[in-house]
Amino acid sequence: MAQEQDNNLQSKDQNKQEDNQKKVSPLKHVAILSGIGIEMGVIIYVFVMLGKWLDTSYNDSGKLFVVICTLLGIAISLFVVVKQLNRIKY
Predict the structure, then answer these.
(1) In the list 29, 38, 69, 76, which could disulfide-bond 51, CB 3.0-4.6 Å?
(2) How far apart are alpha carbons 27 and 16 in whole angstroms?
(3) Angle 62-50-70 (CA atoms, 0-180°, nearest 5)?
(4) Termini Cα distance of the chain
């Protein structure tokens, strides 16, 4: 009888711990998502600036490096966003 009570208490404790782990505040999700947006903007900005610098240094006639670096920055930022969104469990 005492062993059954101990087993019941242990299973209740495990259930409470699992429920606590599953509950994530909505504020945490908002912080994560806003951080993702800021991160995406910073990555794109850095690559645009890199493209501008490369154009002024090596390409006087056009904006080839700006276009290439911008597209590369967008691709990298989307990859990072998708990777982070896959980690978030709703």
Answers:
(1) 69
(2) 22
(3) 70
(4) 40
